Structures are given as structure tokens and as C-alpha cells.
Amino acid sequence: MADVTNPESEGDLQDQIEEVEALSSIYGDEWCVIDEASRIFCIKISNDLEEPKLTACLQIILPHDYPSASPPIYQINAAWLRGPERTKLANSLEDLYVEHVGESILYLWVEKVREFLVDRSLSSETVDQPEKVNMTAEEEVEDDDDDDEDIPDFKTLQLNTEHTHLAITDRRSTFQPHLAPVVTPGQVKMVLGKLYENKKIASATHNIYAYRIYREDKHSFLQDCEDDGETAAGGRLLHLLQILDVRNVMVVVSRWYGGILLGPDRFKHINNCARNILVEQGYTASMDEATKSGAKTKRPKSKKTK
Q: What family is reported (predicted)?
């Protein structure tokens, strides 16, 4: 058995308790305890600007030997944060840790993320620029110019805070699906922004999403996905949408990690959540069937696939 009376471990635990208390006092409602026993916490960070408003969620797990020997395990959740920018921010956090090895680092990390958000907002590359990813060869860039004119009706956004029967819990991890109709990539960003206004969703370990938009004039699809740190989950979710041949819809699956690794089961839960909400909202039926039945399909297994 491990020596639970190790003085160094006791010192680390006391340092963690004091740091968490300080951060909770400093950041108030922005600080969230996800699992105190497993030392999992999350803080919602914003750039403190009126426009453009940028937010990110920093989730951390404190190892038993932090801060004396190990850094916090962290995940940055922000739908707009991709590729080189994500790498740049991660490198800056790791550099800070190296500079302060053996010290409590979380406050410095939070303020570094906030500084990054401010710099990002003030740069010429604003978040309002539409993404141009995974477009087929037929699609033209000018199609995105009209995105901001199409404001989605957020009454149709299905937040599973009210539809808990669709949630899946396994070994303390919880998966919840959300759905919204979308017809432009710009609407995808708006939906994500609306979702992140919900503190519970914003504090999720991962918010995996995928969408498919059918372009009538081009007879082709715009589609994309995001893992949000859950490697390969976004691609699997998009593959599900393709298999079901759904269109003009976006599905987001939020996962709150419970401290126990689920292995491949996590992908099963993500896709099952997504399929369940697609079925409930009628997206798995053919267009004619959906129109006749009021867009409701109750028996998803009636269509056999092999």
C-alpha cells in the first residue's frame, strides 16, 4: 500500500486545498468544482471585453504530487480554438510551469489564458470570420458572406438540461446531447455561443460536435466536426450523421469526465446520445415521412443496416 502519511504528499494536499480556496474566492461563480474527491475543477475565463466576447474553459485535474513534483493535467475547451492557436496557448502554459516548478501555478495559468483571449480579440483575426473548413470543391467562399444574415431560431435548440432522459451515465462520466437546425456555417458558431452561455455545458470536459448542411444549389454538403480534446470523437460523430443521411442539423454531445477511463465505450455513448436526440427530433426519417409524421420517429431500429 502507498504510504498515505508521506510528509511530501500531505504538504501537496495542503497546498492544493489552500490554492483551491483562494481561486474559489477570487473567481466566484466562474470557478466550478466538478469532482472534489478526484480533484477535478473547471474555470470559465473570458476576455473581459464587450465585443468581441471570447470565452474558454480551463479544466484541470490535480495529481497527488502537485505542486511539488507534477504539473496539473489540463484541458482547454473552446470551440473557436484550433490548430496553431491551441498549440501556442498550450506551449505558453507549459513554459509558465517550467518557470515555476514546485509552485502553485493555477492562478498564473488562468491569467495567461485571459491574456491570450484579450490578444486574440484585439488581433485582426476576429471570431466573427466564418470558418472555411471541409468544403467541397464546388463551394465558393462568397457563400459565407451571408452567414450573419441568417439568425437561427434558438427556440429550436434542444438543450438536454430539460431532456435528461437522453443523458447517459457510466462510471461517473455523463454524456448529454444537444441539437439545433443549421443551414449556414455562421449559424454553427451562433449555436456554440448560445450553448456556452449555459454554465454547466461550458464546464463540460468535452463538447464534441458535428454538422451537415445540404446545399441545394450545389447538390453537395458542407460538413465539419470538432473533437474538443476527445480524440477521434468528432470524426465518429460526423460519420454517424453521414450514415443516417441527416441534413441541416448540428449535434453537440457534452461529456463530463468522472475520473474513470471508459476506453472505447466513450465513443459508443457519444454516438448513442447523438442518435437518440436525432431520432427524437425526427431527423432519421426520410423527408416525406418526417413531413407526414410531424418530424417524429419513435423506432430507430426499424431501418436495418448491415
A: Belongs to the IMPACT family.
Triad 157, 158, 161: Cα angle to 5°: 125
Per-residue model confidence (pLDDT) at position 162: 55
Q: What secondary structure letter does DSSP report for 72?
A: P
Global pTM value? 0.48
Report how far residue 294's alpha carbon sits from residue 281's, in angstroms, rounded to the nearest whole number: 10
Instruction: Indicate the helix (H) or strand (E) that contains 150.
Output: none
Q: Are residues 227 and 158 in the same domain?
A: yes
Residue 52: is the preceding peptide bond cis (ω within 30°)? yes
The residue ranges of the chain whose pLDDT is under 50 are: 1-5, 124-149, 286-306
Same structural domain, 11 and 116: yes
We report the CATH number of the domain holding residue 236 as 3.30.230.30
Enclosing domain of residue 76: 7-122
Place of cell 488581433: 123
Cβ atoms of residues 254 and 204 within 8 Å: yes
Looking at the structure, tell me whether residues 113 and 153 fall in a common domain: no
Q: What does the alpha-carbon distance between residue 67 and residue 167 come to, in Å, rounded to a whole number?
A: 35
Number of structural domains found in the chain: 2
Q: Are the C-beta atoms of 179 and 281 separated by less than 8 Å?
A: yes
